[in-house]
TrEMBL record:
The keyword Ribosomal protein belongs to this UniProt entry's keyword annotation: no
Taxon lineage: Bacteria, Bacillati, Actinomycetota, Actinomycetes, Pseudonocardiales
Stored Pfam families: ABC_tran
Record-given protein name: ABC-type nitrate/sulfonate/bicarbonate transport system, ATPase component
Signal peptide segment: none
Regions annotated as coiled coil: none
Gene Ontology molecular function terms on file: ATP binding; ATP hydrolysis activity
Record's keyword annotation contains Flavoprotein: no
Domain ABC transporter: 5-238
InterPro entries given in the database record: AAA+_ATPase, ABC_transporter-like_ATP-bd, ABC_transporter-like_CS, ABC_transporter_ATP-bind, P-loop_NTPase
Keywords: ATP-binding, Nucleotide-binding, Transport
Length: 265
């Protein structure tokens, strides 16, 4: 498998002098093409900072990020991001179709192709009949599916997802998780998804990277050896799932301590 994303020695410090705050520290990992990698870490550990550095939204204080071998320096054209808060990421005055087409227009894609790609992406997320509605006419789960369609319509080399299902109810969350795995396997998408939910990281991921508390550093990189076809009831009941979930929980608990705390305990 070819490497899609390479993160090497990444660190980022906000501010300077006495007010400096080290948010991520020496992150090194890769994501292979076609992989769905989950990153799980405690609240405030630096997950969003890491994603901002990977997406080129902020310049890291040090280290390197490469996408298919090209060093990231600014937001790459073939990278898309889905955020947690769908209500703030969709434009309420544009229809669903116009929202999905918006970034394509910005990237100079012609009208016919924009229309075709938007319709196709809406079909991928099981929303073929809402193109002319406005986001506020849809449920929260449907709005998040529109955000996912908008990202997929770009046909990104890498899709970054920042806690994408944290703002929907439990049942919708399960539906969206299954939809994401289905779309990812049908289209071979490469996805890096950040979550603070241990169960979600194991259920969704081909791999789970576990972060320490702030400043974030990687404490483990686990392969999820579950069948590709997953089911919200039987997979979550399986011995493999239960054992992996416990391992991630243990790692988060021990890795969530700073070296000073470990030494002092
Ligand atoms: N622009 C900023 N300036 C200064 N400090 C910041 C800035 N953004 C984040 N931080 C600090 O960096 C640390 C990591 O924040 P970040 O938002 O990356 O963590 P997170 O793991 O995504 O948090 P959460 O789980 O709550 O979403 C926090 O202590 C935060 O206060």
């Amino acid at each position: 498998m070819a490497t899609m994303l390479e993160v090497s020695g990444l660190y980022h410090r906000y501010g300077g002098g006495e007010n400096a705050h080290l948010a991520v520290n020496d992150l090194t990992f890769t994501v292979e093409t076609g992989q769905l990698a989950c990153i799980v870490g405690p609240s405030g550990c630096g997950k969003s900072t890491m994603l901002r550095c990977i997406s080129g939204l902020i310049k890291p204080s040090g280290g390197e990020v490469s996408l298919h071998g090209d060093r990231v320096d600014g937001v790459p054209k073939d990278l898309a991001v889905v955020f947690q808060d769908y209500s703030r990421s969709l434009f309420p005055w544009l229809t669903v179709r116009q929202n999905v087409e918006f970034p394509l227009r910005w990237h100079g894609i012609g009208k016919d192709e924009r229309r075709e790609r938007a319709q196709e992406a809406l079909e991928w997320v099981n929303l073929p009949n809402v193109a002319n509605k406005y986001p506020w006419q849809l449920s929260g789960g449907m709005q998040q599916r529109v955000s996912i369609a908008r990202a997929l319509a770009r046909r990104p080399a890498l899709l970054l997802m920042d806690e994408p299902f944290a703002s929907v109810d439990a049942q919708t969350r399960f539906e969206l998780e299954d939809l994401l795995r289905k779309v990812q396997s049908a289209h071979g998408s490469t996805i890096l998804l950040v979550t603070h939910d241990i169960d979600e990281s194991v259920y969704l991921g081909d791999r789970v990277l576990v972060l320490s508390k702030s400043p974030a550093t990687i404490v483990a990189d686990l392969t999820v050896d579950l069948p590709a076809e997953r089911d919200q009831i039987t997979t979550r009941e399986s011995a493999e799932f239960v054992s992996l979930r416990a391992e991630v929980a243990r790692l988060l608990q021990s890795g969530a301590k700073t070296p000073a705390e470990v030494g002092g305990s």
